[in-house]
Every structure is written in structure tokens, then in C-alpha cells.
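Appendix C reproduces, verbatim, an entry submitted by the partner laboratory led by Prof. M.T., so that reviewers can inspect both the input and the predicted structure.
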Amino acid sequence: MRILIVGAGISGLTLGCFLEKHTDFEVDIIDKATDWSRLGFTIGIWDLGRRILSRLDLDGDFDRLGREIHSLFIADRDNKHLVRLYHFDEFYKKYESAYTHIGRKDLHDILLNNSNCKVRMGLSPEKITQQNNSVEVIFSDGTKESYDLVVGADGLHSKVRELIFPNDKVEYTGNRVWFSWIPRKFVNEQTVTEIIGKNHICNLFDDPSNACAVFIGPEISKTFDDPKTRMERLKNHFKSFGAPIPEILSTLKAEDLLPSDIGFVNSNNWVKDRIVLIGDAAHAMEPFAGIGASMGMEDAYVLTDELCQLHSPSIINKVLERYVERRLPRVELARQQTRLRYWWLNSNIPGVAPIRKIFAKIIPIKHFTKFYEELLDTEP
């Protein structure tokens, strides 16, 4: 069975690693990127994702390069008043691990180095045509190939989704995120620090190799983030925040920051004949719950599991239907967790902020972790 994976990110490479273990599959991977020297910053992986890596015997590399997070410290914008301190001790007792931060490039390299699939870079699909028993793909270099299955694993701005589901557009929250590496002195060991102000958030992550700051604030979506005004705008966004935010910003230059508008895909259109979407291409979520990458890795595992039960290419539609039936309930749980976190961090409803601060101190942690636990307690 000949399979094309569009996108050599975390989801696409995870799928490639699983498929290449089976001789029934001939796999091609393409990616629009021309190099992988800048693959972003840090990425959070719940035990859900680590379990998938263990099925590939890659959990050892992941543990070696990752940094376990043991607590979440939430403070108001002056960083003097503790809103909540969560410890993940119970998670570590109950599950093999809880939440780990790892450099996105490190995780990408773990998967890339353990996949024997051929990856062609600087290439994207220009046209995808369903045939009776195959899919014809015309690539951006003018070449043409035929496949039994095409998998869109090409992220939030998926070209595959654009071609097969043109009405399923990316929806934007009206927030922009800026990522940057920062000195370790600004973060607490094995802790995520979350500093919350009105419509603004700053997250500080203890990453394995360095530390990472993530700034979130309102900006007009899809507008150019001009480097000439970037630092001025960022300092203005966070001018009411206390230490260490002013000191962190004073150490940064515009080119140190990677801006990105926060968007999501609110659609369950994942399959059309012999084409299937996985990962962010199918169900990109806002980053507030830190669960999107783990969901994409699960997609890859489940799709491979279903394809391995395929006795004839003629029934591939049934296989893809079963894939959606297995994935949809878990993805919906992840979406609920994301919505809960988004409301908690960024609600604009008047009067919610002070009430939120009061209730945050008394609401049991189970209220915030229930969807995580439902996912962790069940198999994908």
C-alpha cells in the first residue's frame, strides 16, 4: 500500500515511524520547509504522548532530552500575589510521568532519526484528485504521483485541508503569541510560571537546555508583526506587569522573538475518500492546555493500528471511518480542556477576573485536571 504523508512535523514523523515498521506500507513524506534549522522553541508533552513514544521504543531518548515539570505556579500580573500553586505529585504517583517540556527540535530529531521513510523537502501538493481506487497528487515542482492513501499532517495552515475542505478555515482568537529563549535565572526549577493580567499572559518554562518565555496579548490577527515596532508593542502590552517581566524584556531584541497568531480548527471533517487529516491539520487547538502535540501523536498511532487491520485496499473508507470513531471522543475531551484553560486565562467578561482569582484559590485541582485524567486513564 503506497502512502503519502504531507508534513514532516511531529504528527507526520510519528506516523512515518509507525508505518515503516510494517512491510505492507511504502511511505513517502514531503514537507514545504527547505530546512529545519529553526523549528520553534519548547513543546509540552503529557504522558499521553510519552506512551506513544514508548510504543516506538523512543521514550528513553525523550526522557533524556526532556525536563519533567512538577509544579504550576500561577500569579497575578505584579507577580507578588500567588493565585494558585499546583503540584503534579499525584500525577507522577498514578502515571509513569505527567508533563514534560522538551525542545521542539529535539523531539523532531528523535522521530526523524528513527524513521527510515524518505523525506522530500521544499515540496507541497498543488492538486489532489481522487481516482476510483487511488489518489493522484500533483506537486509544487510539477511532478505527479499516485497513492493509495494521502495523509495531511501539515499543521494549522494545512494545504491538504485547503484543497479537500476549502470551507474549513482557521479561526483566530484575536491573540498573538511571542516565543523567546531567555536565561535560566528567570525561571523556577521544573516549574511552569503563569503570570496573568487583563487580556495578557506570560508563561515561563523551565526547558531542558535553556528557559523559554511565551508572551500572549491581543493583536489584530493576520497582520504583519513588524520587527521595527515589535519590542515597543510588547513592552506596552506588558507595562503593568511586575518582575521579572520588565527585566526579561530588557534583555531581548526583536529578532529573538518568534510571533504567531493563535488559531484553531473547529471542524470534524477529517476524511474524504482516500484522504485523511491528522494532528493540527485536523483539529488544531489553542496552546493553553498544552495537549495538541500529544493528540497528534495519538492520531498517528491509531491510524496505523487501523491500517494494519486492512485486508484489502478496497475497504479503506471503512478503515478511515473507524479511525474517526476512535479519535473523535478523545479529541473532544482535549478540546474541552483547552476551552476550560482558555476561559480561565483569558476571559474578557466584565467582573470575571476578580471572581476567577477568588475561586482559583478554593476550587479543587480536580476541577482543572478532570479531562486530563479521563484521557490518561483510557487508551487511545
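The chain has a mean pLDDT of 90. Additional entries are available on request from the coordinating office.
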